[in-house]
Amino acid sequence: MSRVSFxxxxxxxxxxxxxxxxxxxxxxxxxxxxxxxxxxLKRLEDQAGRPLLRKSGRGMALTETGEVxxxxxxxxxxxxxxxxxxxxxxxxxxxxxxxxxxDFGETLLPAVLGRFARAHPKLRIEARIARxxxxxxxxxxxxxxxxxxxxxxxxxxxxxxxARLPLRWIGSADARSSKLRRRGEALxxxxxxxxxxxxxxxxxxxxxxxxxWRIAFTSAxxxxxxxxxxxxxxxxxxxxxGLPAGVRALTAKEAxxxxxxxxxxxxxxxDAEPFPAVTRLAEILIxxxxxxxxx
Length: 295
Known about the structure:
Layout: H1 8-20, H2 23-29, H3 34-48, E1 53-56, E2 59-62, H4 64-89, E3 94-100, H5 108-119, E4 123-129, H6 132-140, E5 146-150, E6 158-166, E7 168-172, E8 187-192, H7 197-209, E9 213-219, H8 222-230, E10 236-238, E11 247-250, H9 252-255, E12 262-269, H10 276-289
Parallel strand pairs: 3-4, 3-5, 8-9
Antiparallel strand pairs: 1-2, 5-12, 6-12, 7-10, 7-11
Helix pairs in contact: 1-2, 1-3, 1-4, 2-3, 4-5, 5-10
């Protein structure tokens, strides 16, 4: 059997098209024509010897072969990008200051730190896990180079929207959703200390629906919130990203509670033209995060 060599740029178009759920949007992001990206996809399918996509309603879905190819594409491109960054940036020194929401501290941060350290062994990342107000204050006052934060009333001059994610009611993994509240009793809420974007969204939704509520537990951290929800003290609200094993996301219908709004996720930069190391960290951050944003 002849040896097959997959073109990284073709794999990149395929991966981005799947992640954005649109090859037209992928073409726009890559500054290529839609026909050029379609030709790349056809070439990749010819090399694979089987279809990678199938029709699903008005859109497209991955075939079994496509799912296998997607996994390998991510791994190959990650290694390719690490190699390129390493040979071009091995002499870079200094630090990059990164701020993240708690939602990403346990799941995203270790992967990002590992990839960055392998590519830039002489650079160090100073990571800060904090809430929105502190993160944006850090970017706007030059204390952070990058910050991954939820979109709200505050912002920064150099911001890139990454996604809009659904807010979901979060309950204990062991509790039945039908027991979230007893008839005639106020809904017990487990929330972060005010001010909090997500807390406000939950309360506003309940007030509009005419559902009585009470604050059953407050915490300064997500760890405390998840501990209280796991113990069955009440229901909370968050996106489905980074949920621990003791809790689970509920649909509004399943919870018997009102639908919740979407929440924007954005990457803030302190400078319009940051240092190369900051730019590379932003690329790694987005690449690592992107697969989990298709919720």
